[in-house]
Amino acid sequence: MAVDYAPLVVFFLVNFLAPAEPMMRLVAQFSGWLNDMDRVGALVIARVICATTAFIIATVIAIVVSRVKLGSVSPMLWISGVLVVIFGGLTVYFHDPRFIQMKPTIVYATFASVLGFGLVTGRPLLEGLLGSAYPGLSALGWRKLTRNWMIFFVAMAILNEIVWRNAGWDFWVGFKLWGAIPLTLGFAIANLPMLMRHGLQAGEGAVAKELPPE
Fold first, then answer.
1. DSSP structure class, residue 179
2. Counting beta carbons within 10 angstroms of the beta carbon of residue 173, is it exposed (0 to 12), middle (13 to 18) or buried (19 or more)?
3. Residue 113: predicted pLDDT
4. N or C: the chain end with fewer CB closer than 10 Å?
5. Averaged confidence pLDDT in the chain
6. Half-sphere exposure for 130 (CA within 13 Å, toward CB)
7. What is the spatial distance between Cα 39 and Cα 37, in angstroms, rounded to a whole number?
8. pLDDT for 104-158, tens place per residue?
9. Whole-angstrom Cα distance, residue 151 to residue 135?
10. How many helices (H) and strands (E) does the chain have?
């Protein structure tokens, strides 16, 4: 879990704590388009580019560390990592934060679609992914858990769209760390009573072992 969420922490820290002037000078070294903007606008875009670039680099490092230290990379980290590189790259190239802001929506929608497909076709996709995290869970429990997470991902996709389309960049970045992660952890914990009723072995499961990375 630490490996999954470390890139998001880096993203947050660079955006809010990195000094403004060095970021603007760094971006200006690679492009002259900041000269055509007012200082406030240039600062915002410089922070967007620096934070997004750090996010991409940290995500690639997280994937490598997961592969080397843990022996494997979770499918959710792969999906999120690929989308971070693609949409983060588009954000940096076009100097437009909307691309990286749309990434969580696409991640959530992808997860919801995959889980929904599993429910419709009767394939235990979530069980295959998280079986070791929920030992003893019955088939009915897996179906309910799959349904619950599918609904949660749909809700989070909608929420991300509402936040980034109606709030500023800083609010959205803060929401990713202080809103999306607590909501995800809280939802995982809220499912515990249902999981216990359907055979989950207490004390052996890892509720937050495979939460979706941001």
1. I
2. buried
3. 93
4. N
5. 84
6. 25
7. 6
8. 999 899 889 989 998 998 877 777 766 666 778 888 888 999 999 999 999 999 9
9. 23
10. 10, 0
